[in-house]
Design brief:
By secondary structure, the protein is an alpha/beta fold. It contains nine helices and five strands; from the N terminus they run ααααβαβαβαβαβα. The protein starts with a helix and ends with a helix. The chain binds CO-5-methoxybenzimidazolylcobamide.
Length: 210
C-alpha cells in the first residue's frame, strides 16, 4: 500500500503514535505536504460519516483527531512562510462552546505562514476573551473565529457583534468552519468568510492590504 494510503488508514484507526513516522515516510516517498494533509482531512471526513451513521462514537473520533494532529506536527515546518516582515497580528480561536481545533490549527498555520504573528486562544473562546486579547496584543489587525457545530453558530454571531461593538478598531474579522457559509458570515457582520485554511490566509492578506 502506498505510504499516503497508510497514513489515511492510520488516522482513521486513530493510531496517534504511528502516524508521525509514517507521514515522514510518505514525504520521503515523494508525496507533497499538501497531498498528505489532504489525505488526513479526507480521513476525518470518513470518521465524521461513520460517527453520523452510528458506527463509531466520540472516543474514536477523538483518537483520530489526535492522530491527525500528530501528523500535522510533522508537516508544519514545511508550511512555514518565507516572509521576513510581519503583516500584523492575527488573533485566532474556536468560538465558545466548541472544542474542535484541527481546522482552526490549520487555519492558524496558513495565516501564520502568510506573514502574520499568530496569537492562538485555543478552543471554547468567549467573545470577552477575544476582546481582551485585542487589548493585550500589539498591532492586531485580523481576528479569526472558527466554529464546527451548528449549535455554536449563535456564539459566533455573538462574538462578531461583540467585536464590532467593543469600541476598539483597526482590525477585521474573518469567520469559517464547516457549517459557516458566506451568507451567514455576511449576515452576522463579519468582514470575510473563508472555506478552508488556504483561502483563509489569502483573505487575511486581502483584508489588511485592501
Ligand atoms: Co465532532 N462533530 N463533535 N468531534 N467532529 C463534527 C463537526 C460533526 C460534523 C460529526 C458528524 O456528526 N458527522 C458533528 C457536528 C454536527 C453539526 O453541528 N452540524 C460533530 C459533533 C455532533 C460533535 C459532538 C456534539 C459529539 C458529541 O459529543 N455527541 C461533540 C461536540 C464537542 C464540542 O465541541 N462541544 C464533538 C466532539 C468531537 C471530538 C472532541 C471527539 C473531536 C474534535 C477533536 C479536536 O478537534 N481536537 C471531533 C471530531 C474529530 C469531529 C470530526 C470527525 C472531524 C473534524 C475535523 O477535525 N475535521 C467532524 C466531522 C467532519 O468534519 N466531517 C465532527 C478536519 C478539519 C481539517 O476540517 O475542522 O472542517 P474542519 O476545518 C476546515 C474548514 O472547516 C475550514 O478550514 C479547515 C481546513 O481547511 N475552517 C475555517 C475551519 N475553521 C475555519 C476558520 C476560518 C476559515 C476556515 O476563518 C477563521
Amino acid at each position: 500500500m502506498p505510504k499516503i494510503e497508510e497514513v489515511k488508514a492510520l488516522v482513521e484507526a486513530g493510531k496517534a503514535k504511528l502516524v508521525p513516522a509514517l507521514v515522514q515516510e510518505a514525504l520521503d516517498e515523494g508525496n507533497s505536504a499538501k497531498n498528505i494533509l489532504q489525505a488526513m482531512v479526507d480521513s476525518m471526513r470518513v470518521i465524521g460519516d461513520k460517527f453520523s451513521a452510528g458506527e463509531i462514537f466520540v472516543p474514536e473520533m477523538l483518537m483520530s483527531a489526535k492522530a491527525m494532529s500528530k501528523g500535522v506536527d510533522v508537516l508544519k515546518p514545511l508550511f512555514a512562510g518565507q516572509s521576513t516582515s510581519s503583516l500584523g497580528t492575527c488573533i485566532i480561536g474556536t468560538v465558545e462552546g466548541d472544542l474542535h481545533d484541527i481546522g482552526k490549527n490549520l487555519v492558524s498555520m496558513m495565516i501564520g505562514s502568510a506573514g502574520f504573528d499568530m496569537v492562538d486562544l485555543g478552543v471554547d473562546v468567549s467573545a470577552a476573551k477575544f476582546v481582551e486579547a485585542i487589548k493585550e496584543n500589539k498591532n492586531v489587525n485580523v481576528v479569526a473565529c472558527s466554529g464546527l457545530l451548528t449549535t455554536t453558530m449563535p456564539k459566533m454571531m455573538e462574538t462578531v457583534q461583540t467585536l464590532k461593538n467593543c469600541g476598539l478598531s483597526g482590525f477585521k474579522v474573518i469567520v469559517g468552519g464547516a457549517p459557516v457559509s458566506a451568507e451567514f458570515a455576511a449576515s452576522i457582520g463579519a468582514d470575510a468568510f473563508a472555506l478552508d485554511a488556504g483561502s483563509a490566509a489569502v483573505k487575511a492578506v486581502e483584508l489588511v492590504k485592501g
